Amino acid sequence: MRARDLGIEFDGDPGTNNAITDVPGVEVGFTTLIESEGEHALRSGVTAVLPRGRTGVGDPCHAGMHSMNGNGELTGSHWIAETGMLHLPIGITNSHAIGPVHRGIIDWVVDRHPLVAQDWLLPCVGETFDGDLNDINGNHVLPEHAVAALDAATRGPVAEGNVGGGTGMNCYAFKGGTGTASRSVTYGDQSYTVGVLLQANFGDRSELTIRGVPVGKAMPDDNPFATQETRPPGGGSVIVVVATDAPLLPQQCQAIARRVPLGLARTGTTGSHFSGDIFLAFSTGNSGALHTGWEARPAVGTLDAAAFVPWAHVDALYAATVQAVEESVVNALVAAETMTGRNGFRSPALPHDRLRALISP
C-alpha cells in the first residue's frame, strides 16, 4: 500500500515505479532483521543504495550533502565536502550499527571490486535511532548484513515501511521507516529523473500534515510517545538520499540537498533539536568522466571535463526534489505496519481508513 493507493494526490510527474530506482543505474537492497521478543527484541536492518548499481562501483558521482540538524551521523561526508564526489555505495541503519555497516561495505568492495579496494575506502553510512522498538545496544547488526543488503540490490519497485534500516523506526508517533518516490523533469529535449529514498524516524504527532490537512491533530489517540517522559517530542532523525541522472556540479548537488527540508516541512515537521536531519544528493551524469584515487589517476596533463545543467535552469530539479521528499515521507507512513518490539513497545500504523476520510474532499 502506498499513498496514491489511498487517493492522495501529489504535485509533479512520478517515474515508472515512483521510486529512487527510476534513476537509471540506481539499485536498492535491504536486509531486514526481526527476531525475538522482550528486552532483546531485534527490529532493525540495513538499507543499501548503489548509485551506479553493483557493477558501477568505482565510477564516482558528483555529490553534495546538507545537515539541517547535526544530531546524527553520515560517515564519509568530509570527503564529499572536500572533493564533491561519491565513490562507494551508501548504507543506512540504526544509530549504533554504523561501525558494522561501514565494515560490511568495505568487505563487500574488497571481495567484489578488488581493483577499487586498492585505494582507501570511505563508505557513507547514515543512521537513525530505533531504540524504542529495537535492542539497539545488542550488537545485532553485523557486517554480513550489510554485505547481504548490497548483494540483494536491484532496480525496479522498492519495498517501503518496515524494511531494511527502516524496520524499527517511528515517524510522527506512528510506525515509520523506509519511503521512496521520484519525479520526471524535462530539460530541452532531454528527460531526467529525480529520485528520493529516505529513512523516516522524526516528527511529533501534533505536527503531522498531509497535503495541507492537519491529520496528526485529528488523530491524537493511540500515541505511544504521549506518556514517555524520556522521549523528546519530535526526536528520532531522518536520512534522505536524492539521486538524479541530470548532469550536475557538486555545488548543484549540495543545493538540491538543501531543498530537502522544504519537502519535509510540507509534512509538518519543524525540525526537533533531537532529530538528526542529514541529506545527501548525487548525480549519475558524467559517467566515466571523473577520476579519483591514486591507482586510477590520469596521466599528468590530463584534464577532466564535466557537463552540467546551467544554474539558470535548475529550479525544475529543486521542485522535483521537494515533491518527491514529501511523497516519500507519506509513502513510508502508509506502507508501515503496526509493530511491537523491545519490552512490548508498540508502534501503531497510520490508520488508512481514517486518513482517507480526512484527506477526501
Task: Describe the model.
The model has no long low-confidence stretch (mean pLDDT 96). This protein has a 6-stranded mixed β-sheet. A 4-stranded mixed β-sheet has the order 1-2-5-6. The protein is 22% helix and 23% strand. The protein has one domain: L-amino peptidase D-ALA esterase/amidase. It has helices at residues 77-83, 98-112, 143-151, 215-218, 250-265, 315-335, 352-359, and strands spanning 27-35, 42-50, 61-69, 85-86, 90-94, 124-128, 170-171, 174-175, 177-187, 190-200, 238-244, 277-283, 339-340, 346-347. It is an alpha+beta fold and 361 residues long. It is built from 7 helices and 14 strands. It is globular and about 65 Å long.
Concise description?
By secondary structure, the chain is α+β, with helices and mostly antiparallel strands.
Comma- or semicolon-separated keywords:
361 residues; alpha+beta; L-amino peptidase D-ALA esterase/amidase; 7 helices
Classified by CATH, the class is Alpha Beta
Structural class: alpha+beta
- Give the strand order, joined by hyphens, for the main sheet: 4-3-12-11-10-9
- The ordered string of helix (H) and strand (E) elements is EEEHEEHEHEEEEHEHEHEEH
Shape: globular
Report how far apart the termini are.
21 Å
CATH superfamily: L-amino peptidase D-ALA esterase/amidase
List the helices and strands and how they pair.
Layout: E1 27-35, E2 42-50, E3 61-69, H1 77-83, E4 85-86, E5 90-94, H2 98-112, E6 124-128, H3 143-151, E7 170-171, E8 174-175, E9 177-187, E10 190-200, H4 215-218, E11 238-244, H5 250-265, E12 277-283, H6 315-335, E13 339-340, E14 346-347, H7 352-359
Parallel strand pairs: 5-6, 11-12
Antiparallel strand pairs: 1-2, 2-5, 3-4, 3-12, 7-8, 9-10, 10-11, 13-14
Helix pairs in contact: 2-3, 5-6
